[in-house]
């Protein structure tokens, strides 16, 4: 974890915004796979991690903002725990590592919360998204688990989102270290792509490299020769050497910050002319978007710029027609680019998504569109310096969607449906980097991972 002063400052900044009442953070419990003693690998709640750095199960933090008292609640290790697990820090030691002055057992938390409720004091807590959190909060607050989120503090959500959105240099170092491992994964993908010849085997190799580095995936990786299936999970269908291979992968840093990288490579090592044409459009859209992603710009407009670049390129190829800006205004680009340009990255790969996508990505100025494609944009709001976001445009040829739009005659002014038959087996291309927002545009974080056609092909030769 970071030095305890980091967590103290984060909590102090939080309290300064909220002023009075109590803040309650409930951490995660172990999540059993098939019986309690055989749990999934533990991953702490990201807001709990952000304010404490503590990666321990069954803990809660209560901050009394009226007297400044901070308390860590949790189980004290028993002799049995020590016999099975080895020596463990005491609760007091855990608390002091996080700069928290007081510690106590969980029964005491229940009493303190009840007293505060009885006194009519506000208790701010974040919405829960795991059954164990819902049960714990429900028990503590004497609320039914399926209604406990109705009492979540909108004010606390706002303050936490504002704070976690702006990354410090320490956090950016973490994200860059996670990106460093992504580069190794890209190199391994390129190296092993032909011997292994299916996505399951490649995913296993990449998972092994990740685990050996002491890390883990930040989300289920997408490794597929069918890039048009946006979240296709690895399967064992053999690749064809004429296919493109899309890898969208992210790992956690030591302090659990995420990375999120997508590259699309030709399995043969050389892009075909048709693949190259589409690839260059995606790359141009990504580069234009990164330049535009400056503090003060709305990400919605950056997304639109990427969409306009894509439409312009597809018009040049004869797959679209009309004016790119008109096509994007109508939403015709979403046939090829049906998802959003990106999202924030931090302790979560979709940072803070558990607090509500709209609470993170939209505000009073920028409301989420209901238009197909644009509605999937997770982040639309105005950017600020030191936000960290992904920029990940793509072009996909999705047969079911092309068929439906053609039948409906949808946007036939903009789409050359008769030209699309030749692309039914093309798949999809996405290129994604993680970018730090600066006053002058986006700064790509992490080591260089090849993305120009020539450097991708050169990497494939090794
Ligand atoms: Mn992403």
Question: What is the topology?
Answer:
Elements: H1 4-18, E1 22-26, H2 46-52, E2 60-64, E3 69-73, H3 79-85, H4 91-97, E4 102-104, H5 106-118, E5 123-125, H6 131-141, H7 154-165, H8 169-196, H9 199-212, E6 222-224, E7 244-249, E8 261-266, H10 273-292, H11 299-316, H12 324-330, H13 357-361, E9 388-391, E10 394-396, H14 399-408, E11 428-430, E12 433-438, E13 441-444, H15 453-461
Parallel strand pairs: 1-5, 3-4
Antiparallel strand pairs: 1-2, 2-3, 6-7, 7-8, 9-12, 10-11, 12-13
Helix pairs in contact: 1-7, 8-9, 10-11, 11-12
Explain what you see.
By secondary structure, the protein is an alpha+beta fold. The chain folds into two domains: 4-165, Creatinase/prolidase N-terminal domain (Creatine Amidinohydrolase, Chain A, domain 1, 3-Layer(aba) Sandwich); 169-461, Creatine Amidinohydrolase (Alpha-Beta Complex). The chain is 40% helix and 12% strand. It is built from 15 helices and 13 strands. The chain has helices at 4-18, 46-52, 79-85, 91-97, 106-118, 131-141, 154-165, 169-196, 199-212, 273-292, 299-316, 324-330, 357-361, 399-408, 453-461, and strands at residues 22-26, 60-64, 69-73, 102-104, 123-125, 222-224, 244-249, 261-266, 388-391, 394-396, 428-430, 433-438, 441-444. Helix 1 crosses helix 7, helix 10 (273-292) packs antiparallel against helix 11 (299-316) and helix 11 (299-316) crosses helix 12 (324-330). Bound molecules: manganese (II) ion. Residues 260, 343, 390, 392, 432 line the site of manganese (II) ion (MN).
């Amino acid at each position: 974890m970071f030095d305890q002063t980091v967590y103290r400052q984060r909590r102090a900044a939080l309290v300064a915004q909220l002023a009075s009442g109590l803040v309650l953070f409930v951490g995660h419990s172990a999540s059993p796979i098939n019986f309690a003693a055989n749990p999934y690998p533990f991953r702490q709640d990201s807001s709990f991690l952000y304010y404490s750095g503590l990666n321990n199960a069954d803990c809660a933090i209560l901050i009394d903002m009226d007297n400044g008292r901070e308390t860590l609640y949790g189980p004290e290790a028993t002799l049995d725990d020590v016999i099975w697990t080895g020596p463990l820090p005491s609760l007091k030691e855990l608390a002091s590592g996080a700069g928290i002055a007081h510690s106590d057992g969980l029964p005491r938390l229940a009493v303190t919360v009840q007293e505060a409720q009885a006194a009519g004091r506000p208790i701010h807590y974040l919405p829960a998204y795991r059954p164990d959190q819902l049960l714990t909060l429900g028990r503590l607050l004497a609320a039914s688990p399926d209604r406990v989120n109705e009492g979540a503090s909108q004010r606390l959500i706002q303050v936490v989102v504002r704070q976690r959105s702006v990354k410090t240099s320490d956090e950016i170092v973490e994200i860059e270290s996670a990106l460093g491992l992504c580069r190794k994964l890209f190199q391994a993908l390129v190296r092993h792509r032909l011997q292994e010849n299916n996505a399951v085997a490649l995913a296993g190799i990449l998972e092994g490299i990740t685990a050996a580095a002491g890390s883990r995936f930040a989300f289920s990786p997408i490794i597929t020769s069918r890039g048009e299936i946006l979240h296709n999970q690895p399967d064992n269908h053999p690749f064809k050497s004429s296919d493109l291979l899309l890898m969208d992968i992210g790992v956690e840093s030591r302090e659990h910050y995420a990375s999120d990288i997508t590259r699309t490579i030709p399995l043969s090592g050389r892009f075909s002319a048709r693949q190259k044409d589409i690839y260059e459009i995606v790359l141009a859209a990504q580069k234009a978007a990164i330049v535009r992603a400056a503090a003060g710009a709305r990400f919605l407009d950056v997304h639109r710029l990427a969409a306009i670049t894509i439409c312009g390129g597809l018009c040049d190829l004869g797959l679209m027609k009309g004016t790119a800006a008109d096509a994007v205004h109508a939403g015709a680009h979403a046939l090829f680019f049906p998802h959003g340009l990106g999202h924030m990255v931090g302790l979560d790969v979709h940072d803070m998504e558990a607090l509500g996508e709209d609470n993170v990505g939209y505000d009073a100025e920028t409301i989420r569109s209901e238009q197909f494609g644009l509605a999937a944009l997770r982040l639309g709001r105005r950017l600020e310096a030191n936000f960290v976001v992904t920029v990940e445009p793509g072009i996909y040829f999705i047969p079911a969607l092309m068929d439906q739009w053609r039948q409906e005659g949808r946007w036939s002014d903009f789409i050359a449906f008769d030209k699309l038959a030749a692309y039914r087996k093309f798949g999809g291309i996405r290129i994604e980097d993680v970018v730090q927002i600066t006053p002058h545009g986006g700064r790509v974080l992490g080591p260089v991972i090849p993305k120009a056609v020539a450097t991708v092909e050169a990497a494939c030769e090794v």
